[in-house]
Design a protein that fits this description.
The complex is a heterodimer.
Chain A lengths: L2 E6 L8 H9 L10 E3 L18 E3 L8 H5 L5 E3 L5 E3 L9 H5 L6 E2 L4 H6 L15 E5 L2 E6 L8 E2 L5 H7 L4 H5 L5 E5 L6 H8 L15 E4 L2 H9 L1
Parallel strand pairs in A: 1-11
Antiparallel strand pairs in A: 1-10, 2-3, 4-5, 6-9, 7-8
Chain B lengths: L2 H27 L14 H12 L2 H10 L10 H19 L11 H4 L6 H29 L4 H31 L12 H25 L3 H35 L2 H12 L1 H18 L7 H20 L3 H4 L5 E2 L9 E2 L2 E2 L10 E2 L8 H24 L7
Antiparallel strand pairs in B: 1-2, 3-4
Helix pairs in contact in B: 1-14, 2-4, 2-8, 2-12, 3-4, 3-7, 3-8, 4-6, 4-8, 4-14, 6-7, 7-8, 8-9, 8-12, 9-11, 11-12
The chains are: A alpha+beta, B mainly alpha.
């Protein structure tokens, strides 16, 4: 089993619902974003670098097969799960940020201060915070790892957990997939040739981000069809 | 102990205390009090790690020169070399502690070490080197501590330990360099030239540390002049080896002219003054050390400080061109002339300021500078206290 995503850039309307759903469900404090959507070529989102030629690029942890973050972690706090997910054990992480430096996708986030304190800056009613409420533990190599918690510790690294808590507890797809109004995101088993994701990758000239870095991401993108149209014209 | 050294020890101790209190403040508030961010996850602390590791090379140069290559003129400086090496390698380990978000979990490195991580190896080789330098210093001091009868044993053991120490001494620079040069995402670091370059820098700056300490300890006397001259030759040669390794790497990258390399050089241009300083300051110091200036204690010390400032600038520059050249920089589909970096969430929430950025103008905060000063003071304190209470100085 290798869980992976397919993101259809033709369908993505740049609404950032995935980012917001992710932020809410996974209790990210202000300043931290596990999932983002940007407009390639432009400094400002939804502002096209050229009229009528823009598209949007959602990026989150790529759950790479050859993940540099996993290899550099000195304490094996970040590891590759048997289902192909790259997870962080919040109890194991020492906060050296080596993984953040090694990740070419810039998706790893650090708790520079106590997240409770950052949340306080938002002026919600006292003690309110959003997010999936329960801790989630998962066994790996005989150790029970704390892979999700609502309020993370100060000084640990966090990132997309592939909604492992929803996957294990409710059999649900990640929040970003469920929250996408345009059904641009798909999730499934990349090792199963008959899964939707595998078929989409095969049939649509799917590509990965910066493949030259050799990370073998588990997140595939389908090019916007404008490009495909052009290819058939030639 | 003379009065001047006593006062300097008190001042160093006060700076160490200031560093300690500042660390307490950083522990309470979190690393938010530094100027690092998710885009720029390592700063002054990790630069200083590389700096102190480099300074610790002096012990290697001395032990190898005396006991493997038979340069006996350097023998009087062997003990001070081992002492400065110990002070600097422990300083290197100290300065990474404030960089750790969860310092109480540091024991995890011993309990759950992951062997694919160069950082785990670095902890191992740095600790081993620290132990080796202190053992080596003890062996060299045997005749002074236990009577002249131990002279033969001391010589024999020193000869045996020298090759082992050499392996670890090279190891600390190579492994520290590998922390950076294994990262394929960072164009600035991903080069096989980095480890040899770390070694070259370490040898010339480490030797400078020994030269400064020796001159302060022994003064400029005729019987040491030849020894000093050998040290200056080592410094001069290895500085040019470093320049060669660095610009050789630049040349190859620039010649091919890939956009990723141009991107890095453009970012280096933002720090061009620091780059000019990292080259010209040691060059000036080396010109001074090769002149009559070498015949005065203050001349050597001032030159040494200039050289070390240049090397510190070199270590500082490890970071900006690595982190500001965001690895996820692409030519978006359909845009031929655009080279665009995917912005990163900074992890810092400031009202009215975007949390998404593609450039981080890192400038260390007073917290980072105070902590660094504390560790520099510690390094001086160990050396000055060591020469005061231990028989480090070979009496004529």
């Amino acid at each position: 089993m290798r869980r992976g995503w397919v993101i259809d850039l033709e369908k993505c309307i740049g609404c950032r619902s995935c980012a917001v759903a992710c932020k809410q469900h996974n209790a990210q404090p202000p300043g931290n974003w596990w999932a983002t959507v940007e407009t390639p070529g432009s400094k400002y989102h939804l502002t096209m670098p050229e009229q009528g030629r823009g598209y949007f690029l959602p990026v989150t942890c790529q759950h790479c097969k050859n993940a540099p973050c996993v290899k550099v972690c000195p304490v094996e706090a970040t590891y590759k799960d048997k289902d192909g997910m790259v997870l962080v054990d919040f109890e194991r992480c020492i906060g050296c940020r080596y993984c953040m430096s090694a990740c070419p996708y810039g998706v790893r986030q650090f708790n520079w201060e106590d997240p409770k304190k950052t949340l306080g800056k938002l002026e919600y009613v006292e003690n309110y915070s959003y997010g999936y409420p329960l801790n989630h533990r998962k066994e790996h190599n005989g150790v029970n790892r704390l892979v999700y918690m609502k309020t993370r510790f100060k000084g640990v690294v966090e990132k997309c957990v592939f909604c492992v808590h929803y996957y294990d507890n409710e059999g649900l797809d990640p929040a970003c997939v469920r929250g996408c109004p345009g059904h641009a995101r798909f999730v499934g088993d990349l090792e199963d040739p008959n899964s939707t994701v595998s078929q989409l990758i095969r049939d649509n000239e799917a590509f990965t981000l910066i493949p030259e870095k050799g990370t073998e991401p588990s997140c595939f993108y389908l090019p916007p069809s404008r490009k495909k149209k052009h290819m058939t014209e030639v | 102990m003379n009065k001047r050294r006593k006062y300097s020890l008190i001042i160093a101790f006060a700076i160490m205390l200031a560093g300690l209190f500042t660390y307490g403040y950083q522990l309470r508030e979190g690393l938010i009090v530094t100027d690092m961010s998710n885009l720029f996850p390592w700063g002054l602390y990790v630069s200083a790690l590389a700096f102190f590791v480099g300074n610790a090379a002096g012990g290697l140069v001395l032990s190898a020169s005396v006991y493997m290559f038979g340069i006996t003129k350097l023998k009087p400086f062997a003990k001070i070399g081992a002492l400065t090496a110990f002070a600097n390698v422990t300083a290197a380990m100290l300065i990474v502690i404030p960089d750790i978000g969860q310092p109480l979990r540091l024991w995890h490195i011993l309990r759950y070490p992951q062997f694919s991580s160069p950082l785990a190896w670095d902890v191992f080789v740095l600790s081993a080197y620290a132990v080796l330098t202190i053992v080596y210093l003890y062996i060299l001091m045997l005749p002074d501590l236990k009577g002249p009868g131990m002279k033969e044993l001391s010589e024999k053991l020193a000869k045996r330990i020298a090759p082992i120490a050499l392996v670890f001494a090279i190891g600390i620079h190579v492994v520290t360099a590998w922390i950076f040069s294994t990262q394929m995402g960072r164009e600035w670091w991903f080069t096989a030239a980095l480890a040899p370059d770390f070694l070259a820098v370490a040898v010339f700056v480490g030797t400078t540390v020994v030269l400064m300490a020796s001159v302060l300890l022994y003064g400029i006397k005729d019987q040491y002049k030849e020894g000093y001259s050998i040290l200056v030759k080592i410094i001069t040669a290895m500085f040019f080896v470093h320049l060669f390794l660095m610009y050789n790497d630049f040349f190859i990258k620039a010649w091919y002219g890939a956009e990723s390399a141009t991107h890095v050089f453009n970012i280096l241009m933002d720090s061009i003054l620091i780059h000019i300083f990292e080259v010209l300051a040691p060059l000036l110091a080396i010109i001074l050390l090769n002149s009559k200036v070498r015949n005065s204690v203050s001349g050597v010390v001032v030159s040494g400080v200039i050289l070390m400032a240049g090397v510190f600038a070199h270590r500082f520059l490890i970071m900006p061109p690595a982190f500001n050249a965001i690895p996820l920089t692409i030519k978006p589909l359909g845009f031929i002339d655009t080279y665009w970096s995917y912005p990163i969430a900074t992890g810092r929430y400031v009202e009215g300021v975007s949390t998404i950025a593609d450039y981080w103008n890192y400038s260390p905060t007073w917290v980072e500078f105070t902590l660094l000063s504390g560790v520099i003071a510690y390094m001086y304190f160990v050396v000055a206290l060591g020469v005061s209470i231990l028989p480090v100085k070979k009496e004529d």
